[in-house]
Amino acid sequence: MFKWLDALLGFGGTAKAAAPEGNPLAGLALDYLIGAENVRARRGRIAEVPYNAPHPGGLAIGYCNLFDETNSGQFGPYLKTSDTAKQYNEGQIDPEGDGWARNLAVQFNLRRSQGFEYIELDNPDAYYVGDVSAAVAMAGRYGLKVIAKNPAIMDGDCTQYVKMCHGIIVERDCGTAKVYDNIRRRISKPTMPVWFVYHGAGKLAAKKMENAIRAGDFKNMSVTYSAKGEYGDSWDILLPVRA
Question: What is the CATH number of the domain that holds 134?
């Protein structure tokens, strides 16, 4: 099923599939800044930087994309089933083609050279869970740990994928606090960090999520809002409560 796994560019060994006990990201707020021009790390927080942007220092996440971010045409063959790919003018790469592994390898090599330990792999909901899980395993071969993105809206059982990750980022309308708490418990990681991120017209939805998290007394869940475009800045709505 995963023909591209034969093209991992010589990286062998066992993938880092599961977060160790005592997740260093737990209890920390996330500044989700994938649309920011310049990112500065803030003490005691995590900063996620845009595609190809340098490491800001401290604890940081490097944004990566399962799509062809720049629609370069260099990582074919391509699929045509994703509305998100059309909206952002990005190429939806076919996991069965050799371009899939090459796209990931380019990004993983860069992030590793920049000193990142954590990355996000965006747009997993456009693919089968098995393909995304294999991409997470490939990241592990490069010494990179993956943060899950919107797993509740993926087709099929997302637990295989989430269990391999070290935190979860959730956008508007991509799942409730209760849904993600259930996912954490199903994979025996009840305190895995979950960061809900909103922007634009989503401020009211962000406040509703805050209320739901408080009502459920869910630990290691937080809410931020970007008032500057699509994740150009980050404002706390709810800080995470440590387990």
Answer: 3.20.20.70
- Name the residue range of residue 155's domain: 3-238
In the chain the beta strands, taken as DSSP E runs, fall at: 30-32, 46-49, 59-65, 78-79, 92-93, 118-122, 145-149, 168-170, 194-199, 221-226, 235-238
Structural tokens at position 219: 């630990």
* Contact between residue 197 and residue 226 where contact means Cβ atoms under 8 Å apart: yes
| Confidence tier at 176 by pLDDT (50, 70, 90) | very high
H-run or E-run covering 112:
helix 98-114
User: How far apart are the C-alpha atoms of 14 and 170, rounded to whole Å?
Assistant: 28
- Rounded to the nearest integer, the mean pLDDT of the chain is 92
As a whole number of angstroms, the distance between CA 165 and CA 17 comes to 7
Q: Using 50, 70 and 90 to split pLDDT, how confident is the model at 22? A: confident
Confidence of residue 154 (pLDDT cuts 50, 70, 90): very high
